[in-house]
Amino acid sequence: MSPAYAHQCLAVCCLAAALLLPCFPASAQTGRPAPRAGYAFPAGGQQGETFNILVGGQYLQGVTEVHVTGTGVGAAVVRHFRAIRNLQAEQRRELMRQLNAALSRHLDRLPPESPLARQLRNQLATRGKGPAPAAGPLEAGDGGLPPHPLFENIADKSLKELLHLYLEIANFRRRQPNAQIGEMVLVAVAVAQDAEPGERELRLVTPAGLSNPVRFQVGTLPETGEGEPNDPVLPFPLPEEPPLEIPMVVNGQIMPGDVDRIRFHAVPGQRVRLSVSARTLVPFMADAVPGWFQPTLRLFDPSGREVAYADDNGDSPDPVILHQAAAEGVYEVEIRDAVYRGREDFVYRLSLGSSPSETAIRTPPGDQMPQPTAETEGNDTLPEAQVVALPATVGGCVGFPGDIDLFRFEGRAGQVVVAEVSARSEHSPLDALLRLRNGAGETVAWSDDEMEKRGPLHVGLGLATQGADPRLEVPLPADGTYWIEVSDARRHGGPDHVYRLRVSEPVPDFSLYVTPSSLTIPPGGDAVVTVHAVRKEGFSGPIDVSLKNPPKGFEVRGGRIPADRDSVRMTVSAPLRPASPPLAIALEGSALVQGQLLQREASPSDDVMQAFLYRHLVPAQALLAVVRGRVPKGRVRLATETPVCLPSGGKAELEVLAPGLVLPEGTRLQLNAPPEGIVLEAFERTPQGARFRLSAGEDAPPTGFEDNLIVEAWRPVPDGKGGEKDALLGVLPAIPFRMVGSLPDQPVLAP
């Protein structure tokens, strides 16, 4: 690891369970919110290397553990840095005194008449070296300089690092602090030589629980840091450093207005692939401002001429440049944000190499379609169209500019046909255009890009996914011959313009997503999760949700998504014993679809908000749970039979059995986001636990409506200012209920 890279490495709700007092979640015990992670920098490292990274986020005080998914990567907490806003005048003076003293030592080693030496002398003469303190320099955290990676070990920094710090100080006051990424944790990482390459997830553990994941990559190529300052225009005439020899991975950050230039050597005929991981690493920003990182790449040849530009790669916002070097020499690649924004979580990994792009189209897991057949070229006209029988899947290629692929099938009047192309979604450069033609060759329907509206995730909640691949679902107007036409909307083509075409009648199916991806559960307690169902091509039936091969003692409560519902909250209960490190669990949905039992694993995700309106499900690799806290005498459970029948305009009583229940004075129960018209009326302690009453008003959901109720327990605690605030004690197991008509006069409570 180079000294510059080492410096870069350093420079930079849980609702959980049980109504038992001994089982309060850690966040309730400590009064702290669950930790949140926003980014890791650098966001990866090479096999066999040991290095430091910074994880930025919020509520990271007291972090004790670091968990990385997979094997072969060890991580340990080194230090926590609290958030700072601006430097005080006295702190700035002390920082400049130390900086100028360190620059003076480097000045003595420079050729006296070099441009950099002259400029440094002028700078030091203008600003002065500052008064010497009575007793040695103030170190970061000593009551002088605030603890911050940039301000540590100033005397040991290289000249380039000092100049970078000088520029950072000038910009520090102008930066808008962001509390959601203001704290930092320095983490020591060791990657085994045989660690599997690819993406991992990193989570932090505090007394309040387990953080959300941030992404981290294990690579096979040598790695370095960007080596700030490296802007194309600098106030200092820095000596040129040797160019990088590729292949190489460069880790960097883009701050406001930052433009990074990285130099590398290439020879004539060398095919160079420059690819960025940025949105791949941080798909969600912690707040609405400044918005997502939109990286752009520019490539300059040895003469300084721009020879390539990219701002995306197919449907990926992370750019890729493929270029064949025409001359030997030093090339420069420039990376910046499209509109010159920047922040600590604008992190990137720039790969400099010659790896080819992926061109194979994968078959989706659980796909019910037949195995793909190969497209037969020479199918460019209607008479030459390749014959297919529905259902069909074809692997094809728009092999040259202007190429058109045609497929013929027989259909009947009223038959619903689905045709869809997978290309950009599988990293193919093909911008597919899809047409359905009738027997006369006339266009019946066409599609360019498909707007996916996914149940509760569509525009009603602000989320609409714009896809770059086309899809058609059309009832055929008459019996006869039809053609499916696949082409490139821009009339491009080539051997890498591959696609997968599916033509069939509707295939009812579903997929599932579960949020959040990190759970903190007290022993014997419960944590709330939301399971989203994406219903496909007419499927509307109920879905039963359970744990797939669960660790002993884990189970799902309220695991059913009723017919026509797109999301339901349920709870995951933990065993009575603590479990650390985090355990991987998986949820699975089962449904009877056209007489066939389908099982689909729920994809872990995190429900996040962008721009104060749009909600996104950010995918995660794993659903992880930690079980921590005091061990109770037993589980909290419902004595009432479920689902609870709640009559419209009526009431229902529920009893909770809780061994060793101790309820603090002032404890109250309340429903979390119940359906309209349903309220919790009364709550009382019983010898066995507690009893409460539900009522349904006239505005309650209609008869037949099914859902789960989430009941929270709250108590007043001191707020540290002489008053009180409410603190969450935990949640009960999810309570399934069904709206019914009026019930006969009989007890609702089970015997």
Detail the topology: elements first, then pairings.
Blueprint: H1 3-11, H2 26-30, E1 36-41, E2 44-46, E3 50-58, E4 65-68, E5 73-81, H3 89-107, H4 115-127, H5 159-172, E6 183-191, E7 198-206, E8 209-210, E9 214-219, E10 223-225, E11 244-245, E12 248-253, E13 259-266, E14 271-277, E15 295-300, E16 306-310, E17 320-324, E18 329-337, E19 347-353, E20 373-374, E21 386-387, E22 392-397, E23 404-411, E24 416-422, E25 432-437, E26 443-447, E27 451-452, E28 465-466, E29 471-475, E30 480-488, E31 498-504, E32 509-515, E33 518-521, E34 526-536, E35 543-547, E36 555-557, E37 560-561, E38 567-573, E39 579-585, E40 587-593, E41 596-601, E42 603-610, E43 614-619, E44 623-627, E45 637-638, E46 644-647, E47 651-657, E48 668-671, E49 678-685, E50 689-696, E51 706-709, E52 711-718, E53 724-731, E54 735-740
Parallel strand pairs: 2-9, 10-12, 11-13, 20-22, 21-23, 32-42, 33-44, 46-54
Antiparallel strand pairs: 1-3, 3-6, 4-7, 5-6, 7-8, 7-9, 12-19, 13-18, 14-17, 14-19, 15-16, 15-18, 22-31, 23-30, 24-29, 24-31, 25-26, 25-30, 27-28, 32-34, 34-38, 35-37, 35-40, 36-38, 39-44, 40-41, 42-43, 45-47, 47-50, 48-52, 49-50, 51-54, 52-53
Helix pairs in contact: 3-4, 3-5
Would you kindly provide a written description of the structure presented here, covering whatever features stand out?
The protein is mainly beta and 751 residues long. Among the domains are: 89-172, no CATH class; 237-359, Jelly Rolls (Sandwich); 373-504, Jelly Rolls; 637-740, Immunoglobulin-like. The protein has five helices and 54 strands. A six-stranded mixed beta sheet has the order 36-38-34-32-42-43, with no helix packed on it. Strands 2, 4, 7, 8 and 9 form a five-stranded mixed beta sheet that branches. α3 packs antiparallel against α4 and α3 runs antiparallel to α5. The protein starts with a helix and ends in an 11-residue tail after the last strand. The model is unreliable at 1-30, 129-143, 452-466 and 745-751 (pLDDT under 50).
